[in-house]
Amino acid sequence: MNAAYSSVLVQNLKVTLLDQKRGAAPASMLDCAAHMLFYFDEPEGMYSAALRFMLERFRASRVDFGFGSPDKPVYIPSAVELVPDLSIPPFEGAFPNQIWPVQQVWQSRGPVYQSLESCPGIDKYWAGLGSKSKIARRLEVEDQVFGLICIDDTDAVRRW
Q1: Which member of 14, 31, 59, 145 has the lowest number of beta carbons within 10 Å of its beta carbon?
Q2: How far is CA 30 from the centre of its chain?
Q3: Neighbours of 28 (CB within 10 A)
Q4: Taking a C-beta distance cutoff of 8 angstroms, is the pair 47, 66 a contact?
């Protein structure tokens, strides 16, 4: 991306996402947006900043997001963040996109809670991930769906 264009874009986003929202959005959200803007020219850093915010905000074990659509055969995460020092496996590879629990997220306009108890049969797909429950939501801009974000709670025992 052209450095001058990138600088103007970041400045416009700063005004829109930070300056105009001061007082209207929680400070933690503004902090997350500021960190994302700091890494604007480095997508991996930007994704990592956002996912770390989600880990902390929800006290989750693992957070992932990926680009995609409901008609693809699989969902593949683009970025995954884990709580450091927890012995949980990362989400690597692909996940079947056409099973009902995933399609439920694609079709819902809001967050979807899923657990081993509420989604019979999901355990065979979550095997090896250590997930016991998750909150998932489709990502969209102006009714254009472009991906998913999932926030997992796992069986990992946390040290206090």
Answers
A1: 59
A2: 17
A3: 11
A4: no
